[in-house]
Design goal:
The complex is a heterodimer of chains A (about 100) and B (about 170). Chain A is an all-alpha fold and about 100 residues long. In chain A, about 75% of the residues lie in helices and about 0% in strands. In chain A, helix 1 packs antiparallel against helix 2 and helix 2 runs antiparallel to helix 3. The relative contact order of chain B is 0.06. The chains are: A mainly alpha (about 100), B mainly alpha (about 170). Chains A and B meet through helix 1, helix 2 and helix 3 of A and helix 1, helix 2, helix 3, helix 4 and helix 5 of B.
Chain lengths: ~100, ~170
């Protein structure tokens, strides 16, 4: 039995919503980054699923998009976690509610 | 739907939920690596072997380790005493996420009848992927190489100690 495209899309939508909820509700900046990673992964799942069920999978378009997206997400994670470590060194906290020095 | 798909997607969703809900940050990092592994299995089920193994190498091998290092460097594993791990405005965030899921789910279910349920297995080898990366996608490949170099140097500079600059 093959899984229809809608099943993969629903799983990706649920994972995206979980990641969004994590990024919006958690206090710790590292957890916010984890939520963003979950959202990026859900988008990758959509890209691969549409590539697999699309009319021309041999053109590799969605597949390549997902591969490049994985590479960009790795760069984002490295810089984001470096920023969190540096903010912790300056402000002695990783709580995003307390990091409000630039609030207008 | 196949049983493997149901099991793997349930594992992935459970990993994601645990990553968002658990109190101890190290447990969160472990749960998120479970979710990444589940996604890699979903990629394998979609006949995207290269993407699945790249997912395992990049996310479980690198991103999860980086997250654990960041948690330990910021002493985030010590649970805050008495206060919630969720932000003060968590109801608003939860409502936004639920609304986004409702819209996405509604759109998918509306279009489910017209989405393809079956497709022929794509005959794509790693050889084809390499050829495509070196011909049609060579410019994006070079840009990603530049981006990764810049991110590497940037992350090191951002996280560097500032003692030498103070002299």
């Amino acid at each position: 039995m093959a899984t229809p495209l809608a099943g993969y899309l629903l799983v990706a939508a649920l994972l995206f919503a979980i990641g969004l909820a994590g990024a919006l509700t958690r206090r710790n900046a590292i957890l916010v980054l984890i939520g963003i990673e979950l959202m990026l992964n859900a988008a990758n799942l959509n890209l691969i699923a549409f590539w697999r069920f699309g009319p021309h999978p041999e053109a590799l378009t969605g597949f390549m998009f997902a591969i490049f997206s994985i590479a960009v997400a790795a760069a984002e994670a490295a810089v984001g976690l470096g920023l969190v470590v540096q903010i912790h060194r300056h402000a002695r906290t990783t709580n995003v509610d307390e990091i409000n020095r630039m609030k207008g | 739907m196949s049983i493997a798909f149901v099991l793997v997607s349930a594992l992935t969703i459970a990993g994601g939920l645990a990553a968002v809900l658990l109190k101890n940050l190290v447990h969160c990092a472990l749960a998120v690596s479970v979710a990444f592994a589940g996604l890699a299995f979903l990629f394998l089920q979609l006949d995207a072997q290269f993407a699945g193994f790249a997912q395992i190498l990049v996310y479980i091998g690198a991103v999860a380790i980086l997250v654990v290092f960041a948690i330990l460097l910021t002493r985030g594993a010590e649970s805050p005493k008495g206060e919630s791990v969720f932000s003060r405005a968590w109801q608003a965030g939860l409502a936004i996420a639920a609304a986004v899921f409702a819209v996405l789910g509604w759109a998918i279910l509306q279009g489910a009848a017209e989405l393809p349920a079956n497709a022929a297995t794509p005959q794509v080898t790693v050889n084809d992927i390499g050829h495509a990366l070196m011909s049609r996608y060579v410019l994006p490949l070079e840009i990603v190489a530049l981006l990764l170099t810049a991110a590497l140097i940037g992350a090191v500079i951002v996280a560097m100690h500032e003692k030498e600059r103070a002299k």
